[in-house]
Automatic annotation (TrEMBL):
This is DNA polymerase III subunit delta. It holds the Pfam family DNA_pol3_delta. It catalyses: DNA(n) + a 2'-deoxyribonucleoside 5'-triphosphate = DNA(n+1) + diphosphate. Its EC number is 2.7.7.7. Keywords: DNA replication, DNA-directed DNA polymerase, Nucleotidyltransferase, Transferase. Transmembrane segments: none annotated. Belongs to the DNA polymerase HolA subunit family. It comes from Clostridium tanneri. The lineage of its organism: Bacteria, Bacillati, Bacillota, Clostridia, Eubacteriales. It is an enzyme of class 2 (transferase). PANTHER family: DNA POLYMERASE III SUBUNIT DELTA. GO terms for molecular function: DNA-directed DNA polymerase activity. Residues 224-343 form the DNA polymerase III delta subunit-like C-terminal domain. It comes from the Bacteria. Residues 20-150 form the DNA polymerase III delta N-terminal domain.
Amino acid sequence: MLDIGTFNENIKKNKISNCYVFCGNDEQLIKEGIESIINKAIDKSFLELNYLKFDGNSLESFDAVVNACETVPFMSDKKVVLVYRASFIEDDGGESNKFSGDKAFNAVLEYVDNVPAHCILILYDVFKGKRDKPGKRLYKLDKKATVVKADKIRGQQLEGKIKGFFEVRNKKIGKVELRAFSSLMEDNNLSIIENEVEKLCCYVEDREITKDDIKTLFLKANDDDIFDLVNPISQKRVKDALEVLNELIYKGEKIPYILNMIERQFNLLFKVKLNIENKKSKQEIMKALNIKSEYACDMLMGQSKKFTLKQLKRAIELCLIAERKMKSSSVDEKTEMELLIINTIAG
């Protein structure tokens, strides 16, 4: 049984089987896999003639699928026949459908071993629950077809795949930098991640990759800017904080937006600080506050340690006061922001 990463690598190398069975929790990942097969196997000019789809829930027998597979492709070496919602491939699936049960599954099992060379037969079904695992039927199919488990890879497995992308490009990346890079790859699409690896390698050229390189290229600009503004505030450096504020205004950021982002940052830091004082782990903090990136969480945890809870609560109150003033009177917005920074540092 292949993971989605190995499947993608095989497709890139033109290692294409003539029968695939996809299973897993991530339907989007399954659809992307099917799309990659179609793009490799069929000329787009004749796609409608050589790509046939069947709804597994509507099948009364497997005969229609077999007939589609046996018919030779039009002006092409290959055709693709897809059966989606193929719940009959799961141990407890499709029992309410006309085409279901052991007899139906055995008909499929017998045919997948005899799919003609001109056809690529694809079946897929999405697991009903996150904890569902492949059953006996899928393992039986795995002996006769290429079964692909389409779940997003995470943790050390994801880091291993990403490290491989760097190694192919003869580029070394340290463990800390690899973890930081991996944590920022929220999409988890290996093709997109490989493009980001290429981007980073081109950016650093012949020198070593640093965390600053990763931060510069991949941390969202707005989050990065606000972090850079709050950082000198946390270190009580009024001049540096005002310089960052002026840079943001010069770049075209609107003052109400900057204020909103600062308030959001202080709120987030307050929650992170509260969790740290309650002895919560980094993983627990990420889950509780819906922080997707370990790298971003590390930065927030580090920054929160420079404030007390009382200081963060005071900073949030000052933001709300400044917001009310800007909305209710004709004050100079830039002056209000400067006073906010000064008062936050003084508090």
